[in-house]
From TrEMBL:
This is HTH gntR-type domain-containing protein. InterPro entries: GntR_C (IPR011711), TF_FadR/GntR_C (IPR008920), Tscrpt_reg_HTH_GntR (IPR000524), WH-like_DNA-bd_sf (IPR036388), WH_DNA-bd_sf (IPR036390). Keywords: DNA-binding, Transcription, Transcription regulation. One of its GO terms (molecular function) is DNA binding. Residues 22-89 form the HTH gntR-type domain.
Length: 239
């Protein structure tokens, strides 16, 4: 995806390619959401409608509409007399997201392993191989890894026609995603995630439903450990 960078004293935005979007509103929404999720715009950072309208070269109307959507998604908050700010990462929302993801992912894995169908796993293998072959020490790229990680899980959900549910789940756990971006600057975390993906594929291939609960519990426990470490490093990002 072609992207350009806009630098300003107030904000640095990484802009999505406008030509890849059918509407101006979609372009603005995707650009702002990506910048928040990827922590380009930090938690508690102020967002100026006037500045955004200048950068996107639009009136304030679509800017306000997009900010309303992002507010409903829990990514920004409007404070009377103060302005619009990127919302701090809610620990309550993160733990709720962990609960829902674990429950839904368990159901999907059980449906896969209990089926008699022989699934085509070639694309999932390919995605995993891209993760393993990339030299993360020389070219640490959290955005690329996040894309591959998301694609890996989405393709697993797609095996049982649940990719829509994955997209909705990924949308719901935006706080979880922001934490994942912080994690992905750590080489050890990346190695652990790749190992977990290999284990998940092994469960699917072996159709071993007895391992699913334990696997997801360990996966969740590892994430919470990382979360606690991140909170200690930068507590001001959280609420």
């Amino acid at each position: 995806m072609k992207k350009t960078e806009i630098i300003n004293n107030e904000l640095t935005l990484i802009m999505d390619d406008k030509n890849e979007h059918k509407t101006i509103k979609s372009w603005i929404y995707k650009t702002l959401k990506n910048n928040i999720i990827e922590l380009v715009i930090k938690p508690n950072q102020k967002i100026s409608e006037f500045y955004l309208s200048q950068q996107f070269k639009v009136s304030r109307i679509p800017i306000r509409e997009v900010l309303t959507i992002l507010e409903n998604e829990g990514l920004v908050e409007v404070l009377p007399q103060k302005g619009t700010f990127v919302k701090k990462i809610s620990l309550q929302e993160i733990h709720s997201g962990i609960f829902f993801r674990k429950a839904i992912e368990a159901e999907v894995l059980f449906e896969i392993v209990e089926s008699t169908q022989n699934y085509d796993l070639s694309y999932i293998y390919h995605t995993l191989e891209l993760m393993k072959k990339y030299d993360w020490e020389k070219n640490n790229d959290p955005k690329k890894f996040h894309y591959l990680d998301n694609e890996f899980h989405r393709q697993i959900f797609k095996l049982v026609y649940k990719e829509y549910q994955w997209d909705k789940l990924d949308h719901f756990v935006s706080g979880h995603t922001r934490i994942r971006f912080l994690e992905l600057f750590d080489k050890k975390t990346i190695v652990n995630i790749i190992n977990q993906h290999e284990e998940e594929l092994e469960i699917i291939i072996e159709k071993n439903k007895d391992k699913i609960r334990d696997f997801l519990s360990r996966h969740t426990s590892n994430f919470i450990d990382h979360l606690n470490n991140i909170i200690k490093l930068d507590p001001d990002m959280f609420e």
